[in-house]
Amino acid sequence: MTNYGAIPTSSHGSPMMDPDSISRAKQRIKDGLAMSRPWRQMFDIHSMRLPHGVSDALSRIKKNQSYFQTNYAIVVLVLIFFSLIKHPTSLIVLTVLVFVWIFLYFFRDEPIKVFRYQIDDHTVLVCLSVVTIVLLFLTDVTLNLVGALVTGAVLVLIHAVVRKTEDLFLDEEAATAETLQG
């Protein structure tokens, strides 16, 4: 005899309600937020200066893009969100996309593997960006989306050029070695 609608009493339960799954999700959220660099460090006024030349500017863009990658993605996504406030269908699509971004980019603790090939973070970022752009273009907000993306790209580029990189460390070993020497 089956009891439809009854609450299951099994200790196995669903994976979403498993206390270990909830703990892992909380830890992933904390780890994902830890991937972004401190906003104070990103906008430190003392670390802003025009580059000395084109090669210095290109070097800064490369290092800042690598160092502030998560922050830059957040800035662009927030700009896209604000540009879509008047379009509810697009906002629903964006909300779904935000959850996809959260689980595939921001809070992922292991590399994504497709057919036994490991996909790096840069490829995931580019693919998610393309999927986001295509889906939002399909919701007829092309002008708003292009405006937000151009604004985001210009802001990110300006920051990447103007933000000095001498005080940025891409790994903890370099930061430790620098503080021991200084």
Automatic annotation (TrEMBL):
Keywords: Membrane, Transmembrane, Transmembrane helix, Transport. The chain crosses the membrane at residues 67-85, 91-107, 119-139, 145-162. The keyword Transmembrane applies. It is a multi-pass membrane protein. One of its GO terms (biological process) is vesicle-mediated transport. Its main location: membrane. InterPro entries: Prenylated_rab_accept_PRA1 (IPR004895). Pfam families: PRA1 (PF03208). GO terms for cellular component: endoplasmic reticulum; Golgi apparatus; membrane. Residues 1-13 have a biased composition (Polar residues). The keyword Nucleus does not apply. It is found in: Endomembrane system; Membrane. Residues 1-20 are annotated as: Disordered. It comes from the Eukaryota. Belongs to the PRA1 family. May be involved in both secretory and endocytic intracellular trafficking in the endosomal/prevacuolar compartments. This is PRA1 family protein.
